[in-house]
Structure formats: structure tokens, C-alpha cells
């Protein structure tokens, strides 16, 4: 099944269940200066989750393009992305747990053909006077039972793999949703969530803890779904009352779902990234997958160039501030890191062309924007390539002078004179063993 098929199946499935499709909006939030980028599909829907009437009704569905630029350093490991797509569906005071959980399950199992025996779920254990979400656990038990799978629930999360345990209770830290990481203002909606995981069959990685569990960071279990049940209103620091309008907010990571359905070892092996990686390979003498030392660079370039195409497609140009600065940082990071792949020619435009071709069936605006996107990328590539070598030489000289210590004044000179963004300069310092003070 291609990623295009999966995207379409999701929309068709929820449309058939009476959901209206919400526009896949620009990465740059309209009328919202509190955040640089669209970070989730629910972001533009907050007023409606708070009770305002949505013009399209009480059942909504969409695929939303999103961007998170906070942890760019983690990109390259196979599962983190700057740009990503989110599958979302919402009930605005309409249906609740008893409908949503079986729908979620049936979408994964019947529509996408995922083996139900490989699915595990988590629910809220109860904490701070908030009750355990027994209702969701019971619905999950019944859903599995209908497929002949006995699913037992436990709060001992390390029992995964033992007996018939398949439903695991986790505390607030893992299975509770409210905005701003639990620091939402009084009056905001909040509630328990339930997450669906796919068992990859791989071994636990002890770097992430002595024992494995479903929500372990080792990724032996991949999270494919997260359904939030907004059933409370925040009335104080940790006090809540039942909401009159109860909502469902489901947000599922598209790349991970594609990875599971296409049975790949990581997101970058799916059809969402392979054409991009192949095009980068055309400019390198080092193959992807052959030298694990440089594979992360391939992944970083593929991730960042996909993000850059979507950003310029939404009207952002490289600059010194706000979204433009993030785009500049992303592009300059690609240009610097691509040296490790022995890329010598300008390659951004040709790779960006592949991104446009792969994504324009779902994002037709990219076709119209293509000439503008390619020009912006080539301009930035030419500008930075011309100064990067000088910047690196200057860094080496500075390091000698300061005994390997880089403070704010040095970082500022590097940016203003040589165009090396501060975050990139810090990254180079780490690689060379110099200190940022
Ligand atoms: Zn693990």
C-alpha cells in the first residue's frame, strides 16, 4: 500500500462516518502570533474544542502538514522529523469513547490490514484524584475479544509479553492530555488519552532502561495512534470538573503508520522518503545503508529538504528572523552536513524537484510554487557555499586564538560575517571538540 493510498483511505473512512474534511492549512498559522509553525492538526481547532460552533459541523477530519523546529538535533535517528503529517479526526461534543475506540481499531485492522495480534494499547491509570479510565480499558477489551484475542489490563507495565496482557495503565505523565505540557490555563479542556502501539518484533534496547514496556523509548513498540478524550475542564492547578461538551481529538503520526503498513525498519525506508534519499545519492559517492556512519546525514538531508520545500511552498523565504531564520538554519545545516557525503555539486534544486513530484498529488499548491521554491533554494545554496569554507577557516583560526573556546561575540561574528547560524556553529564546535562558553 502506498502512502498516497493510506492518506486517502483515512479521509474516506472518516468521511463515510459523517466527518467533514477540514482544509490542510499552511505551515504558517493564520491570525496566531504565539507560535511560528503549525505543530498539530488540532492547533487551529482550539476555539471549537472550547465550545465555539464549527461551520462544518461536529465531526471533522483532516490531514495536516506540521513543523516542529525545537529539536532539530535529534533528526537523523530514523524517527524524528522536522516536517511531518498528522492524521486527525474530531468529535465536537458529538460521539465519544464507545464509538471512537472501535473505529480506530477497525481503521488499522480492516482498512490498513495491520495484524490485531501485534497491537497493544495504553490508558490513563488515574492520578491526583482523577479516576482511572476504566471505560476505555473495557471498550478495548471488547474490541480485541471480537477478534478472538483475550486482552487483559494491568498497571504493571513490565508485564508486556507475559500472559494475555495487552492493555496497560500509565500515569498522568504518559496518558493525560492538556495544552502546554500540563500547564494549560484554568478553563482549558483536558482529559485522558489512549495510545495504540504496534509491536515490531525487535529486541529491547537496554540503553533505554533495564526492562521494556509498551511506551519504552527503544521503539520496539511504535505508537501509531493517540486518541484524546477531552472530558474535563481545568479549574485550578490540579483540579478539574467534568466538561459539558465532551470532545474526541485524535492525532496520529502519518510517517509511523506508513512505516508499519509498509513493514519497514524505520520511517526513512518508506515511499515518503526513499525517492528523496535516492536523489541525494545521485550526487554522492557514498551509498545509503552501506556505511552506518553517514546514514544519519542522508536522513537529515532528506528530512530537512522536505521541510524546506514545504516552507518555501507556503511562502517563507530564508531570512534573519522568525520562520525565515528556521528555514535558513535548516538549509545551511543540509549544505554543511552534505559535505560528509562528499557532495560537491549544487544539489538542492534537483532534490527539491523530487519532493515536489512526490508530494504534489496530495499538495497541488507545490506545483504552482515549484519555480519559486527552486529559485529560493538555489539562491541560498550559492550564497552559503561561497562563504562556508571561509567561515570554517575562520573558526579554526578563532579556536587557536581562544584555546578552543567560543563565546557569544565569536558566534555573532561567525553569523554576521560568514553566515554560519549560531546553532550550526555550536554543532561544528561539538564535532571539533571545541567548547561553547
Ligand atoms: Zn524497550
Automatic annotation (TrEMBL):
Query: In what residue span(s) does the Alanyl-transfer RNA synthetases family profile domain sit?
Result: 1-437
What are the UniProt keywords, alphabetically?
Aminoacyl-tRNA synthetase, ATP-binding, Ligase, Nucleotide-binding, Protein biosynthesis, RNA-binding, tRNA-binding
Spell out the PROSITE patterns in the cross-references. AA_TRNA_LIGASE_II_ALA
Q: Main EC class of this protein?
A: ligase
Q: What is its EC number?
A: 6.1.1.7
Q: Name one Pfam family in it.
A: tRNA-synt_2c
Q: Which GO terms describe its molecular function?
A: alanine-tRNA ligase activity; aminoacyl-tRNA deacylase activity; ATP binding; tRNA binding
Output the GO biological process annotations, alphabetical, semicolon-separated.
alanyl-tRNA aminoacylation
What the record says about family reads: Belongs to the class-II aminoacyl-tRNA synthetase family.
Q: Tell me the protein's name.
A: alanine--tRNA ligase
